[in-house]
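Q: Two folds, back to back.
A: First:
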Amino acid sequence: MSVSFPSRLNHTDGNSVLLFITECHIVTGSNMLRFIVFLAVLFATVLPAVAQEDVLIARGDSAQVSLDPRSAMKYYQEAEKMQPENPDVLWRISKLYTDLAAGEASDDVALRQLDHAVTYANRAIAAAPRHSMAQAALAIAYGQKTVVAPNSEKVELSRLVRMHAVKALEFERDNYVAMLVLGIWNREIAELSWVVKLALDVVYGGLPDASLEESRRLLQRAAQLSPDQIMTHVELAKTLKAMDDETAAKRHLRKALSLPKRDIGDSRRIEEARKLLREWT
């Protein structure tokens, strides 16, 4: 999955560009020193403005891999101050709020963090409606919200999870994050009892079709695209076990246990993988 960062030259104007062109043509004799000074000023003022947001994003990403969400949030929020409508900043903040909510013991605190996550993801979509990761971040936030929201809201939230994950894949067909979300969604809906599905049909008009086969297809593709993600292997293992392929399910759990932690939720997922292996042995 590729993420592009917009470049800009906020500290230049037409006169600066004209001056630069003029200086480039007069670089001999006594003008050489003047040209060197001009370039020094240009590199000191213009180029940092181009790169600074990208540097902050990169530092935030590095902090996340180092399992330091507080530092990651600080870097992303600094980048937000500089570019408040940059979707690459906004979706990262959204996902980080969702990750923090997933580790919260208090449902009330988790819901507040998820409200922030939804707000930031919607801002990212408003800034760039066809941004795949912005759509995926909103699907993730809604998905986590189904865990702690009142039962009366879960069906509508589930519809929103699917809608935004599907949009994310429409805009970027190899978005493994969206595949992961949609793979989990398919399994959870497919495993609902017929009694629950009947009630959903009567009261809420039902949910879109889902299947374990589609869950497996999506999660296998996500694992191919990003083989070093612990969560993908754990979720694929659950789907394979639900399809009575216990051998393959255990293989993916062992794969998950062999991988380094790269996400603040990975410690929790490693414990889950160990627990499932014990239960399935």
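A: Second:
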Amino acid sequence: MRICLLPTLLLLLQNPCSATDYKNLEKALENQLQGRILILRGFPKDNKLAYDAELHPIQETRVGDWTNSQLRIDKVQAKGDSIVISGKHANAGDEGSPFSTGMGKVEITISGPFTQSHIEMADKIRNQLFLIEPHELTTVVPRPWIVFFAGMMSHLENNPYAFNPPLDPQTQALSDPAIVDKLANGEFLYRVKGDVKPPKAVQQQDPEYPEAARRGKYQGTVVLIVIIGKTGAVEQVFFARPAGMGLDYKALEAVKTWKFLPATKNGSPVACVVNVEMSFNLY
């Protein structure tokens, strides 16, 4: 008796990802994504997102603030020849998230059929749709966030968010290029310590309270790293501890308007870096 296998082989070639493969893809993505808080690449703010097998958007998506693109992955499910990833925007109550974002369910649908193995496809989905590692964010986030994600904070005394970049052993000036490369006039940048006396604020504008946070009765504290030039002007501002819900940028906008008598070293004005803590409270 002759048995013809050609039609079966053709069928397998035309449909390289079988139902079993989709279930394996589901399991692989569960292992890689489920329960994690990740950031969607491109920072889409739509709650329903659709991609084709090559992970190109099927429909135009609106772009939002990157802090609102954090997603806690709750479920991965294979549906026919598609994969559906469900979750919700992370909020301040979620363990592992330093931000607060708007609550809302998000559904991501990736439509097949796929031409890669379930392992290859799982890796592709993970790497192309999500920012996995914090260091990746330093290449895409606005400059005020790079210090936070570069991990340039250390635990000092009772303040776990105190800024402690390395000092030049000769001048005792800050030497880390990630924060001094854009300091005006190439001047040294000092931390208030020893013979470096702190700057004194002469003009301080209070921040506006974000309307969305006010409506949601949201309160929080933002810690900023502020670089003050030797003229007393605020040169740069970085986030050390963000609070979310729009509080961060309101704090940043306010501090940028502040004026100081500069820090001094042996009586001469110098540029310095200080921490500023700004609380938003509703009474």
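Q: And?
A: The chain has a mean pLDDT of 78.
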